[in-house]
Amino acid sequence: MYSDSSCPPPPTNPTDALPILATRPPKPPQSVLDNIYAFSPNSKTLGGTAYLIVEKEGNILLDCPAVEARTCEFLTAHGGIKTLFITHRGGIGKARAIQEAFNCEVLIQEQEAYLLPKVKVTTFRQEMSLNYGRVIWTPGHSPGSSCLYYPSNGGILFTGRHLLPNQQGQPVPLRTSKTFQWHWQINSLQLLRETFTPETLAYICPGANIGFLRGKKVIANAYEQIAQLDLDKLKNLPMIF
């Protein structure tokens, strides 16, 4: 269901390896914080937002943006991709095509690696350190749902669909018909509250629902906001269809 269609061997120009899927090119990626860029929501990942962290030691792409020429040109101009990190199964998109085009590592939590049978993947169980930051397993939304922590600008957490802005722009877990295990998701939220502090977590970059941020691009005062959530009340939250 989530695997990529076959693609030609990677050519010299990465653009040639990426089939043009969009009939109307998406908007160019927007600068979020310093060396972080957000791509337009991708219809192939149910409106998911992918991010690029530009680092001297190698760039990391979080989830898959729309696969089209403008995307590839932007990625190439900013140094390509060292690692493609998949935050959850819904963010897989055209991971195989991106790996073939950029010869990048694909990092995913071990329980969802089977969804990429034709992709060479690197897996982790609970936590894994990167050259900068680390990835943390936060199951609930999906079995392998994970976050990436980047210790810049006071600490940034890329949450995929584990935490999303509600209509007030506040970071919350959302209980939908696609939620794998709601109580696991609440426990994962508790783990984040125990892992970070106001001094180590300033921002959240959510993997969807960014329209609710009304142009702000990130969720500020991140730790304070998740610390204020009533976990007992959340456990009994009705499902959103």
Quick rundown:
By secondary structure, the protein is of the alpha/beta class. The chain is 17% helix and 22% strand.
Structure description:
- It is built from five helices and 15 strands.
- The strands form three sheets. A seven-stranded mixed β-sheet has the order 1-2-3-4-5-6-7, covered by helices on one side.
- The protein is of the alpha/beta class and 241 residues long.
- It has helices spanning 69-77, 95-102, 182-195, 222-227, 231-235; strands spanning 30-33, 36-38, 51-53, 60-62, 83-85, 105-109, 121-124, 127-129, 134-137, 146-150, 156-160, 164-165, 171-172, 203-206, 219-220.
- The chain is globular.
- Strand 9 and strand 10 form a beta hairpin.
Q: On the 0-100 scale, what is the average pLDDT?
A: 89
**Within the largest sheet, what's the order of strands?**
1-2-3-4-5-6-7
Let me know the largest β-sheet.
7 strands, mixed
Number of strand segments: 15
> What does the overall shape look like?
globular
Number of helices: 5
Oligomer: single chain
Spatial extent as radius of gyration:
17 Å
How large is the share of residues in beta strands?
A: 15-25%
N to C succession of SSEs: EEEEHEHEEEEEEEEHEEHH
Poorly predicted spans = 1-13, 19-23
What is the CA-CA span between the terminal residues?
A: 22 Å
Question: Helical amount among residues, as a percent range?
Answer: 10-25%
The helix-and-strand class reads alpha/beta
